[in-house]
Amino acid sequence: MFDEDELRRMSPQERIDLRRALAALDQHDMRASGSGERRRAIFLTLIVICCVGLAAWTGLLAATLPRFYRAGGWRGAWVGFDLALLAAFAVTGWASWRRRQSLIICLVVLATLLCCDAWFDVVLDARTSGFWFSLASALLIELPLAALAILGARRLLRMTNAVMRRYMGETGPMPRLRNIPIIGVVPGRPLSDLLAEPPGHPASHEPSAEHAESGPGRTVV
Fold it and tell me: How would you class 15 by CB atoms within 10 Å of its CB: exposed for 0-12, middle for 13-18, buried for 19 or more?
């Protein structure tokens, strides 16, 4: 067992190798299972079906909906939406105050609701006396707040991945967010292997040769 003095005498590279070895020993239970892959395949199939169905439905609506329509429940729709937006602001504030990881989800939901609010305000107020006020509030308030929320969620995701990479002993520049793989979705691949992949590297569904040779008696450091 290493004591603190021995750890301090190690070179930076030796400490990185030690982190990688400890991470590899602790991450054997984080690989994706066969059932997880089936759920992922079902989810992707549903996404494709929804995209095709929504595209067809959108075309049908564009061709058949009347240009003007008197809506019922107008007050309930907008009051209900604003209550949902208020709840999103409140939960986001709580998650930020308590420094919870759920803040990332809250920021994405808040940004989505703000964009929806801006869109419907502008579109439904077109050709009315309130159009310019709705457009100004969308451009100056709602959309900037949505952008700040998305940028905040992106920053938190990158910070979380940077901490994980550091504890796995990975060095080098942080990859782009779109190139960071989802942890636990590739069968036979431990967390340390996924984090070590270079940006844009395609995730392999086969265990790496290095991992296949690893075992309880293998010396890593």
Answer: middle
